Amino acid sequence: MYAVYIQRLTLTIGLSGRVPYEAWTGRKPDVSHLRVFGSLGWARIPEEVHKGKLESRAIKVRMLG
Question: What is the pLDDT of residues 10-57, one digit of tens each?
């Protein structure tokens, strides 16, 4: 899903210098929330998986693409 999201924010030859998001909505996309591949982050562990209240509720992850 992330790959398709990024693809819709990139230029397309058929749209003459516009991105698909801009052609669909009529406004330029905001890309300030995107992060560099390989950056560190945290992933939440669902309540059903972690077994006690002293166990960690998140794990450290690295964003891959």
Answer: 777 778 778 888 888 888 888 887 777 788 888 998 888 877 888 888
pTM as predicted: 0.45
CA distances from 64 to 22, 41, 44, 47, 55 (A): 26, 11, 17, 25, 26
Are the CB atoms for 15 and 23 separated by under 8 Å? yes
Closest by CA to 64, choosing from 40, 32, 33, is: 40
What are the residue boundaries of the structural domains of the chain, listed by start? 1-34, 35-65
